[in-house]
Design brief:
- The chain has 255 residues and is an alpha+beta fold.
- The chain contains three helices and six strands; from the N terminus they run H-E-E-H-E-E-E-H-E.
- It has a domain at 64-218.
- The strands form two sheets. It has a three-stranded antiparallel sheet. It has a three-stranded mixed sheet with strand order 4-5-6, with helices on one face.
- Helix 2 (93-106) packs antiparallel against helix 3 (150-167).
- The radius of gyration is 40 Å and the shape is elongated.
- The protein starts with a helix and ends in a 77-residue tail after the last strand.
């Protein structure tokens, strides 16, 4: 049997050891909790789990080129005048064709001795290029009602044909559609039952400058046309494939 006097110091020693161990565990647990909380909280002025900013992809640079846009000469009712113009280079030939056709209708700003071939308000619906090399320019029918006579009709078709064949390597002839389909004439004068190279129209300052301006039935594309010009491509029926056109040479920079 252990005397009471000897047991009391041993019990006191064990109690002190247990209390010290418990205090150490408690302090260590709190330190670990604080460290974990500090790692989870964002630093001052920062956002928690903020995604890294990615640089926006660089936009492709647009390249411009100079082409010849044909307009109606102010010195003559029928002759076409060449006007240099800057256009944006698009990869798709049809996109370049739409841009050129729109310039023909709107007119080149600050053009000298040249005006748009038709009245303001002519609307372009679309330009499609067939694999045969024929560009089909689709015009809005309602806007064509503003055409004032045969002179504007001839100048409009000629300017479109000469501008597109001269500026685009993929285009050798040009046909005109109205509201997405064929029509016999543009507005009663120009035959739309065929296509044009643009070379049928006289120009100012060119090899044909000395030739008299065509009149009446002798004008390019006069309707009705009993015999299409050599190389003319008939307007196809809806869904039909146009016949292959002949080669035609145009002026200006080829795109």
């Amino acid at each position: 049997m252990i005397p009471r006097g000897r047991f009391a110091p041993a019990l006191l020693f064990v109690s002190i050891v247990l209390l010290a161990g418990g205090a150490t565990w408690l302090v260590g647990s709190r330190l670990l909790a604080r460290r974990a909380a500090g790692a989870a909280e964002p630093a001052p002025g920062t956002t928690k789990n903020a995604p890294q900013e990615q640089a926006a992809p660089a936009e492709p640079e647009l390249r411009s080129v100079t082409v010849t846009i044909w307009q109606r000469a102010t010195t003559d009712d029928v002759r076409l005048a060449a006007v240099p113009a800057q256009v944006v280079w698009f990869d798709a030939p049809a996109d370049r064709a739409r841009q050129i056709a729109q310039l023909v209708l709107d007119g080149v700003p600050d053009a000298k001795d040249a005006v748009p071939p038709g009245p303001p308000g002519l609307k372009l619906r679309d330009v499609l290029i067939a694999n045969t090399g024929t560009a089909w320019v689709d015009l809005d029918g309602a806007s064509l009602a503003a055409l004032a006579g045969s002179d504007e009709e001839y100048a409009l078709v000629g300017a479109l044909a000469r501008s597109l064949t001269g500026a685009l390597e993929d285009v050798r002839r040009v046909g005109i559609l109205v509201d997405g389909g064929p029509r016999e004439t543009l507005a009663g004068h120009v035959d739309l039952g065929r296509t044009y190279s643009g070379q049928e129209w006289p120009t100012t300052g060119g090899d044909d400058a000395a030739a008299p301006a065509p009149q009446g039935e002798g004008r390019p594309g006069s309707a009705p046309a009993s015999t299409p010009a050599p190389g003319a491509t008939p307007v196809p029926a809806p869904g039909a494939v146009p016949a292959a056109p002949s080669e035609a040479t145009g002026e200006g920079t080829k795109l």
